[in-house]
Amino acid sequence: MQIPQSLSRTQLPLFEGFLASSVAPLLEQPAKHWQDAPEAFSELSLRGAAGHCLSLLAPILRDLSQNQDARWLTLIAPPPSLTQHWLRDAGLNRERILLLHPRGQQSPLALAEEALRLGRSHTVVSWLHPLESAARAQLEQAARQGKAQSLNISLG
């Protein structure tokens, strides 16, 4: 029996496969350039049933929680469905995660900025929707200042 070609190939993670096939030929510089200056801000938009969105989100957060960086993975004002029980069932390293919620008059954006600027987290994940371009710029600047990554997730 012959194995179909698509099953016999090693599968690249989604974004690596995209970058390798679509972007690499467009670059004049080698890919090393991307590694030297990683983006400080990323955004992920997930639409659909809450359970499906969480299923897609789980491996991303799991990888981030197992990062070799000694700093925290910080989740700012996660949705109510992202419980301690869900974190455990999704296989996240809960010893490396901080769950933070704004207090008083503090906004989730201000809390995310502060967490990024302090630099005690390798990645700060926020759930800000909608996110205006000025707020994106604020998060990116704070991430650069704290030598961290900002990931905003928009759930639909």
UniProtKB/TrEMBL annotation:
InterPro entries: Cell_div_suppressor_SulA, P-loop_NTPase. It comes from the Bacteria. Signal peptide: none annotated. This is Cell division inhibitor SulA. It comes from Pseudomonas cuatrocienegasensis.
